[in-house]
Amino acid sequence: MPNWYYDKKDLRNTPSARDGVDYETERRYRKEGARFIMEAGASMSLGHNTVATGVVYFHRFYMFHSFRTFPRFVTASCCLFLAGKVEETPKKCKDIIKTARGLLSDEKFQSFGDDPKEEVMTLERILLQTIKFDLQVEHPYSFLVKYAKCLKGDSAKLQKMVQMAWNFVNDSLSTTVSIQWEPEIIAVALIYLASKLSKFTVVDWIGKKSEHLKWWDMFVQDVTMEILEEICHQVLDLYQPTQAESAPPKIPAMQGIGG
């Protein structure tokens, strides 16, 4: 199977970077594409897994292609179209294009050309080859729920903390964490962040053993605080005023963690 995880050096030496797109512009394009997928998915009532799969395809695609060659909103539409089929929540291409038309300005929609449907359908073949037909993507959501069920403490505070972590996972799609670390590690990092911010200290958990220094030692091996904090910082950076053009869009709410 392909290795879909990249380090910081790779992220600064992408096809777009080699094509003259500076690092901050590429980050903005990735964020705009991801948020477009989230907004289009929400307006078409697609679930969080379909949206997240589309976003991961998008981030992977641009590790092989330049934003100058492939316009981001066309690619984003194509990624959502393919993700819908893979996650068994298919939407017609023309409906995705209609949604895009409603969400994008005239100027941005021009990138779809004279025949938007043909543009997206043609790109789908390139997308499939680029992601090497590796279509199944795991996301932090399922791990977040699994881990949360093992944590002990006041149930109302725990639920509040887990909802915050879920929102952070949604927001993390606008960053590159999904192509830097495994979903298990992202889930741990964002529970850690939410527990800090909601002042919910995890002191006990189901399956606790004497060798476990932290609750996550039960689930992931050799994860340093440096890695967890790097993930947290990427998500928190989304809230900085310089980047806060708009609040991250909402994705369908988390299902209850009980049972």
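That was protein one. Protein two is written in the same sequence-then-structure order:
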Amino acid sequence: MEAAVAHAPPAPALRRSLALRPTTPAVRPDPKPWQGVVRSARRQSNAVRCEPSRRPEPRLRLRAAQPGGADAAAAAAAAGRRKRLAVFVSGGGSNFRAIHEAALGGAVHGDVVALVTDKPGCGGAEYARSNGIPVLVFPKSKSAPEGISVAQLLDTLRGYSVDFVLLAGYLKLIPAELVQEYPKSILNIHPSLLPAFGGKGFYGSKVHKAVIASGARYSGPTVHFVDEHYDTGKTLAQRVVPVFADDTPELLAARVLHEEHQVYVEAVAALCEDRVVWREDGVPLIRSPINPDVYL
């Protein structure tokens, strides 16, 4: 990093670990005079990928996330078919749109067959209706008296032969019955690098305000499997974005959201292609679509 004042000793260069690879450049406004100390940071990328370096022996012992025993034949028969997806939203549903568009474009080997929301008038629900996707209201509440029960939700998802459930900005805690019905088959995306800044009450701008207030130098989205609690399931994928010295929650949110749309689509694509494998210690990994011996 260049010194801001002449004759001042140079600041140490930023160190990168885990083979951080820049992706899209950040677009920043004209710097103020005092921003010289972060001038070189402005030329850094908008985001970086964390990629583990390839290692020789010993090989990881992994198992694919597929049923076995009596279900093995059915799993083999289903391997080539397009997966059926149910998406849960509470707001505008930009991640839902990204997944749906990727499915239509062939990047995701699956189809969104149902949209579940607790807010029937939200942007995500309107988008679903305009694209012929059935909308289910769950749960029943004063603001949504037409909502269905847990039993009705499960019956409906079974009726649609749903393979995977994707939470995309759904702000309600999903019922334990749904987690039990779809083990290792429910994903969520959260706008921070979990386990930091996660849990009940951490959503939307609240997350980005907390990140900036903490002094954290990096943030980014996390795709994780869902259990019975808020944001505590196993991490599947993450992206990293820098937090700038003069950031606002709005600016940081925009950079994180850009990465959300990419990493969530990639994770869903891996899920639909049966490229998610589980390490013996219970950690999920994504197998590379190019080289099956490489895990992302």
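The two ends are 30 Å apart (CA to CA). Keep this in mind for the problem set.
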